[in-house]
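Marked as duplicate of an earlier ticket. Keeping the data here for the record.
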Amino acid sequence: MRLKVKLFAGLAAQATGTEAGVPFEFELPDGSPLSELVLRLHLPETGIRVIFVNGRSRSTDYVLQDKDEVGIFPAIGGG
């Protein structure tokens, strides 16, 4: 299946060849959960705050569908 993925802030720097907020296509086997996408992009699960699929917040066990649009946002600290 083909996905459209956007990584935000520092997460984009951790995935080779991506820019923050710029969508890119990614392929996974049918029936893959979000956790598989995170693993294949080499992103640290502890650094992820929220993942949206087609505009809705989803957990990493959510099963992706062909042509889903995924946005992954990091935990951001400040003070």
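See parent ticket for discussion. The first helix runs from residue 11 to 14.
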